[in-house]
Amino acid sequence: MKTREGRPQHLDSERFRIAQRTGRSFRATLRVRETRRTGWGESMSVTSRREFITLLGGAAVAWPLTARAQQGERMRRIGVLMPLSADDPEAKARVAAFREGLQQLGWIDGQNVQISIRYAGADIVRIRTHAAELVALIPDVILASGATVMTPLQQATHTVPIVFTQTPDPVGAGFVASLSQPGGNATGFTQFEFGISVKWLELLKEIAPCVTRAIALRDPTHPAGLGQLGAIQGVAPSFAVELSLVDVRHAPEIERAITALARQPNSGVIVLSSAASVFHRDLITRLAARHKLPAVYFARHFVIGGGLISYGPDTIDPHRRAAGYVDRILKGEKPADLPVQAPTKYELVINLKTAKALGLEVPPTLLARADEVIE
Fold first, then answer.
1. Which pTM does this prediction carry?
2. What pLDDT does residue 224 have?
3. CATH number of this structure's domain 76-193+316-337
4. Which residues lie closer than 8 Å to 37 by C-beta, 6 or more apart?
């Protein structure tokens, strides 16, 4: 065989055959070969040569072992579907917590796992499209951040394992057979029980006792919307509050509903959990402030952005915990055998600056119960 320059490629083998025919010692030939190949300008001593050969031998053994180990570890693929935009701070925090949880368990993006993320916003058409795209990638597991993305994912696949978060009623929605034995291709972490919705109305009356009418903003496509609303409707008369339901998904609908409510005195707002309300949270808190309406929210990020008060589970922690279930699935366990888990952290957050702007004095007893007070 010739190289591109026309010189024999197996030059050393040729010299060895010549040495055999001429009687030249193999040791002498080896010394010449080493001198030419290394370009050191002089022959090696026997000790140096032995060290050199030992070093090469060790590298030759170690390299195949390392290569075999890397080849034996199949690159795993994880899909992530978010009902938020890519630049949303809440979405970034959820993804960061998930990545952090995976790294603590030894899964590093780009090394032994590839994470494919789709951000769909609150657009149900985009959610369906991205769900189909992720399933087509044939991932080992998909992280579904919220009930809104679960329905399209389960319509797209009954085989790819799914770990969900932020899902209020996975049994009622048909995502799992039971909390203890999911029984299908999905498991994960619930958001809360519907009974927590009663707490939102209670807080509205506690921080704004003058409220006698309120609207509940909900996404009609959200599977758990009816359950949340039903819990509030059941206790509204006992709080002397006239409750109205407003279906919203898009910004113009939200603006019309809150503007109309503001024309009526002693009014307030309860924002039910949904991907649409999270997506439009800046608009909702801005409208509530403009019309001086007290509003209660289900998550901290509303109050961080200027909302009045919130009560609900931590929205970031479940994504960190979800990494543990993803790890177990990647190691061979089945979603059907992993029980659905409930939230472990609930937090009451109050924005005193917003309360002051609305002319509200927060009761000391309520302040004492707060987990976080923004001043």
1. 0.75
2. 64
3. 3.40.50.2300
4. 12
